[in-house]
Amino acid sequence: NDLTVFCSQFGLPPPNAENFEIHKMATTLGTDDGWAQETALDVEWAHAIAPQAKILVVQARSPLLADLLAAVDYARGRSDVVAVSMSWGDDEYPLETAHDYRLTSTYGAVFFASSGDNGSGVMWPASSVNVVAVGGTTLTLNSDGSVSSETAWSGSGGGISAYEAKPLYQTTYGLNGTKRAVPDVSFNANTNTGVAVYSNSNWYKIGGTSAGAPQWAAIQALGRSSSN
């Protein structure tokens, strides 16, 4: 229902069986307002960027890492999935590299993850060498809508991973050190200039790197993004 209202507001194709699918990882699932709003943000703005793409929402059993990765496993096992958006993450941990293989797809899907909104620090899965880590910028527009400036957002997460080795593509860019740097790309994330989100029958202005990951994934669906 929220997505239908969002589409009506901005003249986007309404959700139907051809462009929208929900897969539940359990028959019965609980409800969490924070994750529900996050889902609304991700779905609505992926749809806004790539309105002709089909969106698959995979609902995990819980926010526990094992359940989130099980949901990712389902998405990466689908041959029709070209991009996976993950607007979640947690502190790095020593065994994270053992899970990096789950952020790959035999069908060529590209994985995107938010780098976080704490101003510094590295989170997984954004730190995975198999993921395009999405940071945040502050975007300033002129009165006619053209770009005036775009600078790094002070709230964007990022830094040097404690456990992930520096991938070849970062060596090519001449980055120092032996560990992976985060993020790879960025998107408007300043909460003062956030995006409009309709959730639980209310409008909100939401920013953060969580807004960037689904939009980069949508750009990938258009064939105009990046991969690792």
Q: Brief overview, please?
A:
The protein is α/β, with parallel strands linked by helices and 228 residues long. The protein is built from five helices and 13 strands.
Fold and architecture overview:
The protein is α/β, with parallel strands linked by helices and 228 residues long. 23% of the residues lie in helices and 29% in strands. It has helices spanning 2-10, 33-49, 65-76, 168-172, 212-221; strands at 20-24, 55-59, 83-86, 90-91, 110-114, 123-124, 131-141, 147-152, 159-165, 179-182, 185-188, 195-199, 202-206. Strands 3, 5, 7, 8 and 11 form a 5-stranded mixed beta sheet that branches. Helix 1 (2-10) runs parallel beside helix 2 (33-49) and helix 2 packs parallel to helix 5. The chain is globular and about 50 Å long.
